[in-house]
Amino acid sequence: MRFGVFYELSVPRPWTAESERQVYLNALEQVRVADEVGFHSVWAVEHHFLEEYSHSSAPELFLTACAMQTKQIRVGHGIVICVPEFNHPIKIAERAAVLDILSGGRLEFGTGRSATWTELGGFRANPDTTKNSWDEFVHAIPQMWMQERFGFEGQYFSMPTRAVLPKPYQKPHPPMWVAVSTPGTEMDAADRGMGALGVNFTTFKAQEERVQEYRRRIKNCTPAGAFVNDKLAAANFLFCHEDSAQGVDIGRRMIANFQYLAGQLDMAKEAYPTKGYPSPGLLANARRAASAPSDAGEPPEGIAIGNPEQIVRELKKWESVGVDQINFLLNASELIPQEQVLESLRLFGSEVMPHFTEAA
Amino acid sequence: MPRSGTLDLATALANAPVVGDLTATPHWEMPDATLMQINWEVADEASLRVTPAALHPSIPTYLSFFAGFYPDSPVGPFTLVQMRLVVRAGIRPRGYCLGAVCDSEEATAALRANWGYPAVWGEATVSVRHDRIRASAAIDGRDVVVATLTHPETIGGADLMPFDNLHLVRLPGDEAALVQVDPEYSIHAADRGTPSLSLPDPQALGMRGAIQLDRAITGFTFKADTDLAPVRFAIDPSRPAVQGTRRLTAPATA
Question: Does domain B9-247 sit in CATH 2.40.400.10?
């Protein structure tokens, strides 16, 4: 089991000249600590226009700053939007390669297609075709990296033969992932030999079934890139505190705050009915489930809040169903003071991680 | 915290429907309805002025025009045309009904008295042709809205996500409330199309001149068996919905 930290970069109102900058500076400090205590990776979303919920519209810049301030931790696009109105695939390939070079080969390349009308409508993208453009991009981009010169005639972009430069530092290219926010996308990942970068707060039984199906299908995949990345990652929340009650209480408030902001977003299907987005998004449902109160003051099942013993117990469940990695959200709207977030990270590193590194 | 509406509640309540007993709402079955919804982004700041403080604007802010022809109901056939603003009650997407026109005097009275629809009696039409569906409303002979969907293409009923309504009402004792009206839909067929929307009178349908159309999102039409069920939730319009919501009836069992 590996662990990562995951950033939406939420900025609460009122927005001041310093508030966005402070959120970014706090995140960078957290990433430095995460690197020191042994986290595997830091992931940053690409979102646009999502007021308060996420001000992370240029993740490649944030991740470059992370790479420059750390030594070991890998830097992950969680994700870059593979829709032509948002990003041209040549620019995606170029920027990712530069990040891989500057980080010394630490890039994890996550891909996706956006799930909100707020963003899709903002870029005037067609929700009916985002899965198709994503599919075209994830097949073309590794070829841009691996071929000295590359030309392409596709449905969503075309280019004459050119040398797309620079090439990534990792050879043949960085590991590729797909964001899973809608049930079934894990299988899209498996069929293309890509890692499933999930946001899953489903029951462990449901998760176990999906893991088994992913593992079965990826054995027969046709990789989009040069190799198979058969990893499954899930998102989670983290607040670790010596005192169980305090850890659970603060963690719960973080989750509730995050859920409230997430609930304000116009998911694609709400505004624009389409087969391209068959459900409002597992993301929304999962986040709501994650904050639902459970019995007897115990934290919700599978959520990493509480004291180290509680968190170890919950994470062992994820490990038992075959999840390879958990990526944690550490804060929401700066609700938790920075010092407590850092202390939570350090406590997790000293008291929780050792229970998993032995099994790694 | 997300932004909230800035509606002047006292002014808005002056013309709000009066509902005598929220716990005595009937249940109407309305089979074989023809329904149409158009979603359209609107100017953001001005629309806050027609939104109660209990609610958050959607991001982006958009209208959800909704029209229905109900051939069979306890008060006979009627057509209802509604102008709704999409909002959040806490985290739940809802259509806050600004105004409505109904072509049946009896239905208008019942819709106001039982569910708090801000409806007035007028002309309301939904007409279906092979290549388009058109809905319109007029009050005292003046057009207030004309909406059309063209180039229909079939979509799955499961792809639709109709919103529940919220209606601002006066209760006994001059108490104000937002009542939630949440019809069920058993969808038989659905089409998505290219929408057009015309609002000849920007003061009508509760828009108070605050709604400025920006950009069309999409529109769809569907055939469904639907209903109007007893009111289950009421919200204090002056407090955040997460704090001011009360349940009126026991939750339905699965």
Answer: yes
